[in-house]
Amino acid sequence: MRRNLICMVFVILLFVLFGDFIYSNFNFNKPSLIIGIDEDRASEKNYIYYDFFMVRNALIGPDNLIYALDFKANTIYKFDLKGNFVGKYARTGQGPGELNKATEFDFVGEELWVANARNGRIEVFDKTGKDSSFRIEGMELPFSVASSGFFTIVMGGSFGNINIMDKNKKVVGEMKVENPMKFKRHKSLWSNGVAKNLHKSLFLGIFNYVPLVCTFDVKTREHKVYDLSEYYSIYEANNISKSKGLPYGLAAINGCAGPDNTIFIVACDKKERCCGRLMQFSADFKKKLKETKLGFCVRDIRYYPKRKIMLFVTGEEEVRLFKDM
Fold first, then answer.
1. Which of 77, 209, 226, 297 is the 20 to 30 Å CA partner of 86?
2. CA–CA distance, 112 with 232 (Å, rounded to integer)
3. Rounded to two decimals, what is the model's pTM?
4. What are the φ and ψ backbone dihedral angles of 271, each rounded to 5 degrees?
5. CB 214: neighbour CB atoms within 10 A?
6. Comparing C-alpha atoms, which of 124, 115, 186 is closest to residue 155?
């Protein structure tokens, strides 16, 4: 019994020291799949050519398909995990099933909720592609949608305006995230950000124009704002490369939940003059566990621990999929 206990402690110690809660098994130089717009690369292994306009977001749905949201084409494309085209939803317009500057999306159960920003509503597609929509009173510009399966939030164009939704598309609560005094000079602070679910009722908010992130719990209505200027600074496209596909002035581009309650943040950095810095933080942001320079800028990131997949949307209009080796 004592020997078994000693062995168990030894195994736990090894895991703590060398454990795989940090993303050590992803080779970011070798994507398993790229879906992109470079027709000259169509003959390359694992490269699938597709004529996107501006892909801003991508995710893997409950049906194991990749969904890519094209901001300019106002269309959602579907691919299988090998990159084969499966179908598409929506088109440009203001009518039923039509999008106008759709900014974010997420699955709520088997329904795909889309922040149809300029049309001022949430567009909903079921698994057959059938469309419905709803509006939230007082929210003229729905900007982001995120769901855990337990809780769903819709964030307005004003970042501090967060509506908590039930599955019947009714608002069951509201939250306000205060603007830190230090950053009030940034007029666009609350109008450009995204939200991702971390765990059940806990969500992550990422600000695009300042080195800030926040976590907010829709159950307790508590939130915390973290200043990460120690780790990255405001990105200036003019000082690096306009070809990277990102507008002037972006700082943190995106983030998502990582393994074992860690958090991924992807940022570009003015001082380091680089794009695509993938950082993994502890849940309280007190410790940066690891950093990798990806070699490509990132518009969206998703991590799927059960599938052992990381999914990126890059500034080069590509969806890149990496599998844990």
1. 297
2. 33
3. 0.87
4. -65, -40
5. 21
6. 115
User: Within its chain, how far is the Cα of 173 from the centroid?
Assistant: 23
Instruction: Tell me how far apart the alpha carbons of residues 189 and 249 are, in angstroms, rounded to a whole number.
Output: 12
Which phi and psi (to 5°) does residue 116 adopt? -85, 75
Q: In degrees to the nearest 10, what's the CA dihedral of 194, 198, 203, 205?
A: -30
DSSP designation for 178: P
List the structure tokens of 5: 């206990």
* Token output for 175: 């939250």
Cβ atoms within 10 A of the Cβ of 141, count? 17
Token pair of 170 as six digits: 């009714």
Residues of the chain with pLDDT under 70: 1-24, 157-160, 178-192, 209, 234-252, 269-274, 325
- What is the C-alpha to C-alpha distance for residues 288 and 299, in angstroms, rounded to an integer? 21
**291-305 in b/e burial notation, b at 16+ Cβ within 10 A?**
eeebebbbbbbbbee
Q: What are phi and psi of 54, to 5 degrees?
A: -155, 95
| Two structure tokens written together for 80 | 């299988």
Which residue's structure tokens are 């806990």? 202
